[in-house]
Amino acid sequence: MINKLSNAQIAWRAAQDIEDGVYVNLGIGFPELVARFQPAGREAVFHTENGVLGFGAAPPSGAEHWDLINAGKKAITLKPGAAFFHHADSFAMVRGGHLDVAILGAYQVAENGDLANWSTGPNDVPAVGGAMDLVHGAKRVAVVTEHVTKHGQPKLVRRCSMPLTGVACVNRIYTSLAVIDIESSRFVLREKLPAVSLDELQSVTAAELKIDGTVVDLTVPGDVS
Amino acid sequence: MINKLSNAQIAWRAAQDIEDGVYVNLGIGFPELVARFQPAGREAVFHTENGVLGFGAAPPSGAEHWDLINAGKKAITLKPGAAFFHHADSFAMVRGGHLDVAILGAYQVAENGDLANWSTGPNDVPAVGGAMDLVHGAKRVAVVTEHVTKHGQPKLVRRCSMPLTGVACVNRIYTSLAVIDIESSRFVLREKLPAVSLDELQSVTAAELKIDGTVVDLTVPGDVS
Amino acid sequence: MDKTKFNLAEAVVDIPDGATVMIGGFGGAGAPIELIHSLLERFRATGHPKHLTLVNNNAGNGHVGLGALIECGTVKRLICSFPRSVDSRAFSQKYRAKEIELELVPQGTFAERIRAGGAGIPAFYTPTALGTDLARNKPVAEFDGRMYLQERWLKADFALIKAEVGDEHGNLTYRMAGRNFNPLMAMAAQCTVAQVRRIVPAGRIDPETVVTPGIFVTRVVEVSDPQQEEQLNRAGAIF
Amino acid sequence: MDKTKFNLAEAVVDIPDGATVMIGGFGGAGAPIELIHSLLERFRATGHPKHLTLVNNNAGNGHVGLGALIECGTVKRLICSFPRSVDSRAFSQKYRAKEIELELVPQGTFAERIRAGGAGIPAFYTPTALGTDLARNKPVAEFDGRMYLQERWLKADFALIKAEVGDEHGNLTYRMAGRNFNPLMAMAAQCTVAQVRRIVPAGRIDPETVVTPGIFVTRVVEVSDPQQEEQLNRAGAIF
């Protein structure tokens, strides 16, 4: 039984790649955790597509302003230097290439960079939100995800079988087992848990993992949660 | 020798058709005069394409703010209820059909509604400004103009010979001799100076003047200047 | 000029059957709950307006505001980006029963289409949704070696929006992230109705801080203590 | 994050030969005279940058600011809507001598192309200029029974803009009609340099009144008592 990373630990690892002074959009849910783990001495500015730049943590219960929420409709607070704007300006930031990083969740990521994260299929009430805009706007699109589904199915695949959010848009994937880049339409393994062998990792990945240089040990502080 | 209307008198006549509460853009130069003659009890809101809604008269000399100017780069003042905005929002107002009236100058107006008012030809340094946007944006486009050029050439023509500002865009023309509507690609005479006969008016107009109902006497108070 | 002489009932009395109505807000933030409820009361009393096409980012939450409006059956068609919420049963039930049509639009495209409607831009190109199911039947074109989708403007007969301060000319400011789609919808409708927390005389809003210039606004109604969808839902409210 | 650690010389030192540079302002209102003069001083001292493409609504007035920059010969091409002013000889002489290229764009299309550049919209349709000489060689398309012209986005390597207050994050406010193209150009350039009358710490500008959010701004330089083109020209100034 592999001791895979928790969501918080995956988020911690993703946070280590966020440089000082960059503009970041975090998808609803799991990706929101990344904000908790900004490395000391670095300050990123967080963008939420519903019209706030420079927001901070959730307020204490009872102190919410319900006109001050994030894309997930959760109450937020402001940091010094924040700004409000309308939705067209907000997506001008996204689509116009002004965001440095977007970190999103995924149902599936394909080795060609395709992402599926908005619809599980025709039986769903479809809901897309801002995901399709984010994947084409940010300079770098990263995904945080379990390496496999609850049922053990690979989420990293040759081609997505679920409805696409965007074509050839993902640059890097942080999973519960590894850190993988997408380069020239191939998965390139950058880091893996030391306890997982390359064969084991390949067996839960539905497309070839290319090795290009050293594969670094993926280590996360034990107290991250 | 016909006692034709002065520019101020033409502007006075045009101002009589501006209803209470409408949004108006006045072209640079001659059309700016129209603002002086708002009928008592009516309040129009003036738009200038460089980002001000609700401006008023020029300030006294020496009291100018040179960041508070109109499209003609002349200093203006603000009325209560004014607003500033950037150029994309300003032309959203224009092109989006939010202005009620635009009043422009003209080199030539054709019976099909074509307007030429931006270029006298290839020897000019060309300069267009906002004229081409205004003619397609406002709900009603009116022209104020001398009936003929300085050299006595008709300015109301069958087809414009000068470079067009817009196609089929003019609704009404206020000249130094008459008020003429454009309907179904024809000049329809609405008002003329009592001292000018229909034949005389036709002789200085290079397309047929249609009569449709009563032609009203065009009268302007003598003290307008 | 005074655009503030309306009460909540008068503000929505002339919305006709079959109208396209934009409603501001992102979830509950910036949602004009009182205007929506006024419209719903009129529908309950008169049976009109019916067969509405609604334009809102979401599809309501619980049994108040947009959720209640959808529940009552007056909405024929919804154009939105995210018809899912903590409790969006009102919409999902009608959607699954095929009693309501859905046009799903990516959020940035949704915002830009509304702005285009207000700005007189009949169509534009965007990379968003290219190669996805939401690109079906849309024209594509290449610019500078990259492919883009063509999207059309979105306009409405009425917009119901929520703002913070409004003046007699219809100039508006907003409150925090309650701004969202409200300024865009104000531009894109023939008749824009704004509920504001406070009406002030012309000249009281600093011209530098006006967010929506009055030219985009038709009617301003004061609702000095507006309700918030989130709080209504936490209290289990049903309208 | 602190974007305010630049002086006027440092702010323009890396504009390369052949760059496209947007310069804010409508006539003299909102024109960043000191940034323009800093660029001009660099050109006089080093011969660079040369062969610039400038994007400004006008073509300068007199022998200061934009007029002086055009006069010095560093501008290869000008994209503008109205290259005429009380004294636009600097431009007209070079234009007639074919020493400068001109792309003339209707003002609303000019503004919208810049916004499109900033907003990631590669092309859009407008009724403006249809059937005129300025529509030559542009694609047309019909929407809802009316014809429109296709126009392309406009982007730049650098934008030099003028604002009123700026903070460490690059958030900006403007002064009256000095706003004009400045917020749009800020969005459309790879590197946006803003001169402001006053720099304040982050948190001092009310988030509700920020006009240009800092994400669009790269460098902020304080010029506490900026010159105004109109006043310089009335004084007969020559830079």
UniProtKB/TrEMBL annotation, chains A, B:
Q: Does the keyword Iron-sulfur apply?
A: no
Family matches, as InterPro entries: 3-oxoacid_CoA-transf_B, CoA_trans_fam_I, NagB/RpiA_transferase-like
Keywords recorded for this protein, A-Z: Transferase
SMART domains in the cross-refs: CoA_trans (SM00882)
Which Pfam families does the UniProt record give? Answer: CoA_trans
Family statement = Belongs to the 3-oxoacid CoA-transferase subunit B family.
| NCBIfam families xref list | pcaJ_scoB_fam
**What is the protein name given in its UniProt record?**
3-oxoadipate CoA-transferase subunit B
From TrEMBL, chains C, D:
Concerning Gene3D superfamilies, the annotation shows: Glutaconate Coenzyme A-transferase (3.40.1080.10)
Q: Which PROSITE patterns match?
A: COA_TRANSF_1
Q: Which keywords annotate this record?
A: Transferase
State the source organism's domain of life: Bacteria
Give one Pfam family: CoA_trans
Q: Which NCBIfam families does the protein's record reference?
A: pcaI_scoA_fam (TIGR02429)
Q: Which family does it belong to?
A: Belongs to the 3-oxoacid CoA-transferase subunit A family.
Report what the protein is called: 3-oxoadipate CoA-transferase subunit A
What are the top taxonomic ranks of the organism?
A: Bacteria, Pseudomonadati, Pseudomonadota, Alphaproteobacteria, Hyphomicrobiales
Q: Which gene encodes it?
A: pcaI_2
